[in-house]
Amino acid sequence: MTVVKCPDGVDPDPCIQRWMTRWAGDAPAVAALLSCSQDEQISAGYGHTLREIGQQPATWLDTAARASAVADELAALSEGRDIVVLTGSGSSQFAADCLAPALQRKLSATMLAIPSGQLITDRPGVLPASKRCLAVSLARSGDSPESRAAVDALLAEEPGCRHLFITCNEEGLLARNYRGSDRVHCLLLDQRTCDQSLVMTSSFTNIVVAGLCLGWTNDTSGYRRTVAALSDLAEEQMLKYTQTLAELAVRPFHSVLFLGDGCRYGAARESALKMLEITGGTISAQAETFLGVRHGPMCAIHPDTLVVGFLSADLLARAYQLDLLAELREKGLGHSRIVVGDALPADILDYGDAAINRPAKAGVDDSSAAVLDVIVGQLLAFFRSRHEGFRPDSPSVDGVIQRVVGGFRLHSNESPGGGA
Predict the structure, then answer these.
(1) DSSP for 30-79?
(2) Which residues of the chain have pLDDT under 70?
(3) Rounded to 5 degrees, what are φ and ψ at 330?
(4) Fewer Cβ within 10 Å of end Cβ, the chain: N or C?
(5) Other Cβ atoms within 10 Å of 171 Cβ, number
């Protein structure tokens, strides 16, 4: 069991508080919310979510320090593994989607993002035959039924498989139940990242940041420089564009299409889920790749659809993406567009569109920028939730969805109808 404390015993809370004050100074929409006491914010139903979105740049630095401290152990876990399975449920699965293409570029192993549920219901169909496998389970709480059931099945039936847990909750089942197993290793993130809001925000991006270290175990200084650059860019983006996103969020759209490729498709999927969850399903949201839109989903881009595109820094990929955006513009599809990326061309926007234009920074590319894109999706969803009259901390007024998925019956091959 790996537990790494905050470097040098530094308490990040004062740093986070100073940053939140600075953020409010450049974003009146945030200032208005932070003008209430913490108790009033919690009572109004947004205090947890707002802080958890805001704390991300600072918590990434702590996460990078924790992951770097165990880089040798992470390297040993992946050594000799020709398959790495990244698994989770819901947002944690979309974190796997962000990580798989990034790590595929870095490691001489095949990366697969497989939902935990599929490892339970169709393991022979989705798990490669190779016995030299590393299974990386990603989880905020570690308490969801799928998380434990998937690990139990792999431990029982795949004896050659090594396990790494990346989780935010030291009291969760993943962190507690396997401490005696020499096949299991756990990277535990700061408890602050175990979001108290129903929706995952800082837990999502910190899990991604931690997972990226698997590709940098032989260059932890480079890894930490990249995370520091991401933290700086996140702060710049939030200072410059939070107010813009707050204003865009109240426009008369009723559905959102998020577009992304590679790691940024994972960001698109997570952003769509945030919009869906935090508005109680009143705003329909879906994610697609840029080229995939032409194969059916284009018919769902209505006059009240907001299109959000996460543009690649890769010139070839961007050429295809710009062609698709131009086609949507020529066909008059959608209410408006938000285009997110670095060094965006000036002619990319039409009247009513908006650009979230980040500067290019050394070490930050398509493999790592997904966490920056996701913050755009989080803020857009947060302010829309408030506009719709929901409580972002607990937007499911009828309890249909919960912070941790409720327990359900787990079946086995021996007794598929009676539970396991």
Answers:
(1) HHHHHTS-HHHHHHHT-HHHHHHHHTHHHHHHHHHHHHHHTHHHHHHHHT
(2) 1-12, 396-410, 412-420
(3) -65, -35
(4) C
(5) 11
Question: CA-to-CA distance for 335 and 276, rounded, in angstroms?
Answer: 18
Side-chain-side CA neighbours of 136 within 13 Å: the count stands at 29
Q: What are phi and psi for residue 385, nearest 5 degrees?
A: -60, -45
Q: What is the pLDDT of residues 286-336, one digit of tens each?
A: 999 999 999 999 999 999 999 999 999 999 999 999 999 999 999 999 999
Collect contacts of 219-227 with beta carbons under 8 A, ≥24 apart.
220/68, 220/71, 222/363, 223/64, 223/67, 223/68, 223/71, 224/64, 224/65, 224/68, 225/363, 226/363, 226/364, 226/368, 227/60, 227/61, 227/63, 227/64
The Cα–Cα gap between 151 and 41 comes to 38
Quick count: other Cβ atoms within 10 Å of Cβ 21? 12
Query: Residue 381: in which H helix or E strand, if any?
Result: helix 370-387
Rounded CA separation 76/90 (Å):
29
Task: Catalogue all structural domains in the chain, each as residue range(s) with its CATH number.
Answer: 2-226 (3.40.50.10490), 232-387 (3.40.50.10490)
CA–CA gap between residue 213 and residue 211 (Å, rounded): 5
Q: Convert 144-161 to b/e letters by CB count within 10 Å (16 or more is b).
A: bbbbbbbbbbbbeebeeb
The answer to whether 124 and 155 have CB atoms below 8 angstroms apart is no
pLDDT of residue 163: 93
Tokens 């070490």 belong to residue? 363
pTM of the model: 0.93
DSSP 96: H
User: Is there a contact between 223 and 213 (Cβ–Cβ < 8 Å)?
Assistant: yes
Rounded CA separation 148/86 (Å): 15
- CA-wise closest residue to 149 among 191, 89, 93: 89
Length of the chain equals: 420
CA proximity to 290, closest of 335, 326, 254, 237: 326
Residue 26 host element (H or E)? helix 13-26
Cα–Cα distance between 93 and 87 in angstroms, integer?
6
Q: DSSP class of residue 217?
A: T
Separation between Cα atoms, residue 221 and residue 225, nearest integer Å: 6
